[in-house]
Amino acid sequence: MDTVLTDTWTTDRFLVWEDKQEGKHEFNGRDVIPMTGGSIAHQDIVFNLRTALVAMIGGRPLKALHEMRIRMGAVIRYADVVVCATPLDQATRTLTDALAIFEVLSEDTATTDRVDKLIDYAALPSLRCYVLLEQTVVGATVFQREPGGAWIATAHTAGTLTLPGVDIILPLPDLYRGLTFTG
């Protein structure tokens, strides 16, 4: 449920407030949105993804981070996993650019991830791909930015995910290692 604000907040005011909170919150430019915890499957997929990305990045000037705050103008979002260029100051709490962003879909967040965050993240000129990972089946949707700004979406249920702009190829089954699905 969104937190009701008694007066208009700026993004800067939100960031100062959020830095003092125990939990995490997003800000859509109008409303404060509390973040909830993820399921075990969600956590396993995030862990597997970050582990795979770190291995693929190797010594390149890239960094894979999880649950990082990202600012797009007046909007603040948390990504499950983000790949960004380095160097970064170790005290950085808010990113303003990213090359690749990943969200693990849940029943509660799927619409926000598929619509609102896609629109919000598209405002990042540096973003080359946005990846949505299913949580209840092996599956991914990769949104790739074409030269000129258009987005092309591809769906994957097997094989590999090619991440443009970061030159990384991820075996999709590796992201779901340790998980079992019924039905």
Helix content: 10-25%
Label the CATH architecture. Answer: Alpha-Beta Complex
Name of the CATH class:
Alpha Beta
Structural class, please?
alpha+beta
Average pLDDT confidence is 90
Biggest sheet, strands in spatial order?
5-3-4-6-7-8-9
Q: Whole-number radius of gyration?
A: 16 Å
Q: Any idea what the shape is?
A: globular
**Oligomerization state:** single chain
Low-confidence stretches: none
Termini gap: 31 Å
The CATH superfamily turns out to be: tt1808, chain A
**Count, helices:** 4
Q: What is the name of the CATH topology?
A: tt1808, chain A
Tell me the major beta sheet: 7 strands, mixed
Number of domains: 1
Q: Approximately how much beta-strand content do the residues carry?
A: 25-35%
Give the SSE string: HEEHEEEEHEEEEEH
- Say how many strands there are: 11
